[in-house]
Sequence to fold (414 residues):
Amino acid sequence: MDTTLSDPLVGRVLDGRYAVQSRLARGGMATVYTALDTRLDRTVALKVMHPGLADDEEFVARFIREAKSAARLSHPNVVSVFDQGRDDGQAFLVMEYVPGRTLRDLLHDRGRLSPAQALEVLDPVLAALAAAHDAGLVHRDVKPENVLLADDGGIKVADFGLARAATATGATTTRSVLIGTVAYLAPEQVERGVADPRADVYAAGTMLYELLTGSPPFDGETPMAVAFQHVHAEVPPPSQRVPGIPGDVDALVATATRRDPDARFPDAGAFLHAVRRVRRTLPAGAPGHETVILARQRRDTLVVPRPAPQRTDGEPAGRDAGGRDPGGREPARRKPGASPARCVPAAWRHRRAPLAAALTVLLLVTGVGGWWLLAGRYTAAPGLVGLDEQAATARAKQLGFAVRVAEPGYSETV
Fold:
């Protein structure tokens, strides 16, 4: 039977504004739908809490507070929160709709990723978490299901604040949600139920392990067996399961997943800087390094034309050694013995040489200065599109350019 057609919410209009169109997914805490915002005429993602949670007033109050906090978080790698509300007992959250698939779907398709690919995916995830940590927010439920891979090549993290709202209630449904994602919970979350940015770092490090190997570091017959291992065992190096993973990548996983929170990266920003340093050290020819996981925007190189070549013998660049132009024509010359057409006074003839020299120097300085300002200080940029950072840097230095590698950033205009 078609679950979309049988879902009682499909076809309803929540809060007099959001027309529910179809079901996207159902999780332990909520069901996600596509909906039309009839006021702004745009498609949104509608996350509707399960009735067991919506009936808990403590949860709903905390859910609203967390939704407002998440709505203040603006970052290109974060799924935006637009609105929240309740309608006939239905507590819901309105979010940006991201066409694409989840990181979990990618893992199902590929099994595992190369080190270069795994770090390429993790980079924007950590950028999103770093923005949240800077704003005083902790995600608490970092996992592949909450990482969205957009059709346009973007990577976004979803569900900020929902895990914290869930911990406010003692409902059985909530406890099952937390147990269901125990594969990524930090030891302190399992033992004491507390979380700070270092808990997100642990979850991101565990997710990196899974990207590299195809499965989480710990497995067990029950969720509690998995939780026990998180508390009492260190995450093993990924290279034990997949030989050939560089030691620097093993070290990233090890530092991020220490059982002692004080031994981890202090927040996602520190983890991100370490990831970017390791990405620059990966060999350009490593298997999978050249593969682009997702589509990227093309960055065209602006090429400034070189100035026309100058002759050093005083002749214009367009003439040969004999003074001929490209067509072979001789320059016009005055016949021997011919006199100028005009008569110049004697006093002017005495001053003409110094003035002519001064005028020549002035024209020369003006011409050279103008050429330098307009064209001389520029040169053609080498074609580096399609090269990775290491190969592009080597190519630019080979052509005599000074290279400075800055941290990647987001721009509204570039």
